[in-house]
Amino acid sequence: MSPPGRARGWGRLGDRWVTVGVLALFGAAWVAVTRSGWVNDLFLPGPGLLWDGFVDLVENGYKSRSLWEHGALSLKRVLLGFATGAAVGTLLGLAMGYNRKIEAFFDPLVEFFRPLPQLAYLVLLIVWFGIGDRAQIVLLFLTALPVSSVAAMDGVKSVSIQRVQAARSLGASGWQVFRHVVFPSALPEIFTGARLAIGVVYATLIAAEIIAGSTGLGWMILDAGRFLRSEYVFVGIVLLGLLGLLLDRLLLGIELRVVHWAGRD
Amino acid sequence: MRMIPAVPALRTARPRRPVAAAVRRGGGAGSAWGLRALSVGCALAAWAALHGLRLVPDFLLPGPGDVFATFVDVLRHGYRETTLWQNAASTLYRCGAGFLLACLTGVPLGLAMGYSRRVGAAFDYLIQFMRPLPPLSYLILLILWLGTGNGSKIALLYLTAFPIVVSAAMAGVRSTRVQKVQAARSLGATERQVFRYVIVPSALPMVLTGARIALAAAFSTVVAAELMAATDGLGWMVFSASRFLRNDVIILGILVLGLLGIALNRLILALDAGLVHWRGVE
Amino acid sequence: MDLTRRSFLRLTAAAAGGTLAVRGRAARAAAPEKINVAFFLETKPTMIAKGEGWFEEMTKARISWSEAGSGAEINTGMAAGSFDFGLAIGSSPTAAGISQNIPYQLIGMVDNIGPAEDMIVRKAANIKSPADFKGKKVATPFGSTSHFRLLGFLRTNRLTEKDVTVLDMKPDAEVAAWQRGDIDAAYVWSPAKAKMLEAGGVRFPTSKALDAAGYVIADLIVVRTAFAQQYPDAVVGFLRAYRKALELWKTKPAEAAAIVAKQAGVAPEVAKSEMEEYDFVPFDAQLSPTWLGTPGTPGKFTEVLKRTADFLVEQKSIRSAPALAAFQKATNTTYLQQAARG
Known about the structure:
- The complex is a heterotrimer.
- By secondary structure, chain A is mainly α.
- Chain A has helices at residues 11-36, 47-60, 67-98, 100-113, 118-129, 133-157, 161-169, 174-212, 217-226, 230-258.
- The longest helix of chain A has 39 residues, at 174-212.
- Chain A is globular.
- Chain B is mainly α.
- Chain B has a single domain (64-275), classed as MetI-like fold (Orthogonal Bundle).
- Chain B has 10 helices and no strands.
- Chain B has helices at 29-52, 64-77, 84-115, 117-130, 139-146, 150-174, 178-186, 191-225, 234-243, 247-275.
- In chain B, helix 2 (64-77) crosses helix 10, helix 3 (84-115) crosses helix 9 and helix 7 packs antiparallel against helix 8 (191-225).
- Chain B starts with 28 loop residues before the first helix and ends in a 7-residue tail after the last helix.
- In chain B, 49% of the residues are buried.
- By secondary structure, chain C is an alpha/beta fold.
- Chain C has 2 domains: 32-113 and 217-341, D-Maltodextrin-Binding Protein, domain 2; 115-212, 3-Layer(aba) Sandwich (D-Maltodextrin-Binding Protein, domain 2).
- Chain C is 46% helix and 17% strand.
- Chain C is built from 17 helices and 12 strands.
- Chain C has helices at residues 2-15, 46-51, 54-59, 71-79, 91-99, 145-156, 171-180, 192-198, 207-212, 225-230, 232-251, 253-264, 268-276, 283-286, 301-314, 324-330, 334-341, and strands at 34-39, 62-67, 85-90, 104-112, 118-122, 137-140, 165-168, 185-188, 201-204, 218-224, 293-294, 297-298.
- In chain C, helix 6 links the parallel strand 6 and strand 7 (165-168).
- Classes of the chains: A mainly alpha, B mainly alpha, C alpha/beta.
- At the A-B interface, helix 1, helix 4, helix 5, helix 6 and helix 7 of A face helix 1, helix 4, helix 5, helix 8 and helix 9 of B.
């Protein structure tokens, strides 16, 4: 939907110029500030230093592991935690949407865990599950679960009653109603929940690696920060941002493909 | 560029259509509360059982009784020279300050970005890039720039909440039904009136949804922020307790944080219900 | 220049609702109003001076105490201008800080660590010689003096990180991992070290050999250069307070241990035995050529710092290490001299 304000000016082409212009402005400011030496290298590395840092990371890795290894390890944790948490959460949410009793029973659990800051119970999880990926993946599982279940539940609850009645009147069984009416109807919400979940999982993973990791992109940033290697920290942050964007767009792509009926009634 | 809102706008408490009664089973509201209480009771019982039956070693899981005793103790004597109130207040202050600042600056910007294609084009990429950045990753830079006091933490929370609120406001404006705008215009409304009486109310539901998500994100992040160079706060209490292996204090901290989180969520839901009485009505 | 940028950022942050104390650029005052000190909660005489209020007394100022989790945190805080003093920061982070031009000076030593940080191995892991570490998991807090020693141990025994899995864990996490059986060894300090010894651990002595090989580690006192230039009397007072605590430990160890125990939250016997492992170098010894030397004649410890920095460069922890002269310049014993006299 286009912006409701009155359209003025050069149209789409003009927009591109504005975007480029603003980005270029920030870039120029960055170069100027770092060149002038007004700010210590430590606080804001210049583009040259950043580039060198990036090349160094790509060529030599970080602390005896290549950059790809760190990235892959982080990605693995995210995907495992997200997949398991979202799967279980969606199933739970569907059940909660269908049955009020189930909803009432699990509601306190979900309501408690959803806003709970994950790092608070990471500490406990580490004590229970030890070092290594186990504690982190359990944490991510618990992070994704409430988000997905609430989304799935909302999806079921908002199914149009006319559709259900129509299907019933045509002789559909309970299972058929679910498979052909309720589930497809809830899918947009489920995907919305999935995108939200992966976002939270991603942020939580990095925090988990920072607090209790020995590998991964998050840990790399922490370790580099320990010795104030700001150039590695910056490169790490940019990589994290790109990876996060990639994950989100991936899910979006899947959603658009699968849920091609979204918005239509 | 596809105009799908970049922020997944999760539905709020009131679904757009009435509950599919023909599909849902399971009794009325009364039994619901009973079941909720049962659920909490079961959780507590399971906890007590795990501890009492020594299924889990003592040093790993203190029992409900131990945690309660710790709660009373901390209320009376504080934890390492900080009181529970002080810690809760500090955490809430940092969270609230960052969140409110983000809303005060983010909502206007988001509305502007949604309304004017030019403004949107200028800032959209920047905002979209900020969103997937895990907050804790740049905390160390903020500490370097702003010191170890509250400033760096509030800045972190601001940067966490800001892109969410902006995206939500922008999506809210963009989802305004064009017919309404056109109708208002045809009735002779000025641009300012169109903005104030059509667009803003139309965007408000999504703005509040964004605010809810942003507050949850900020709350989560404040605890993470209290990991590095903090001297009080609930997150600090949990981490400090972990260093001394005081699992009872850790669990106490978790429970308090959980309850606070629920309360904050309810607060915004109440605000939502109060302000946006037209939600779902088209 | 630094101050201007900081003031600008602070103003912005204050406007953003932060509760930062905007430290005004006061004219040369005799005593500061408030001093920000980063410290470690540990069993050392520093806790005596803190607990008894001697630091406040002798600097004639209010002190805001920030508990640090690591030397790296102190470095970050110093770089950001949040701390004025760093109390008992390790030599490894100090070497890194000086190499990276963090604006602080080394003004004194808390201790020469020696055997107080060491390798603890699980009895069941059957580790009798360095070669037995192959294939084992050793935990240590990365960036610390223990980490430095561990890497030195691997180097001197021709082991690589492919042979031995080195894990980055904070001391409390190490204790939990130890209890779970997840790690075979740890290089760390007390109280974690003591807990592991109690729980099926045995010391694998490395400190003597590593000290001889040049991997000396120490805990130091640093002060922000700008602060020291503005308030030299406060710096001397700060050191005097520590000296008083040191003397109490030397003359009345039981009483000293009791005070430390209360601060650190451990039993007095535990505090006493932990403190006995450290070599708390007295002030006159610190001023000798062996350690920090006198103003104008820097002692051998500056070489230790340089060697530490070079090692960190090899490990790619820091980008580069300056020449020895930089470490000597960063060591300022004028305040120490005055504090030793008075």
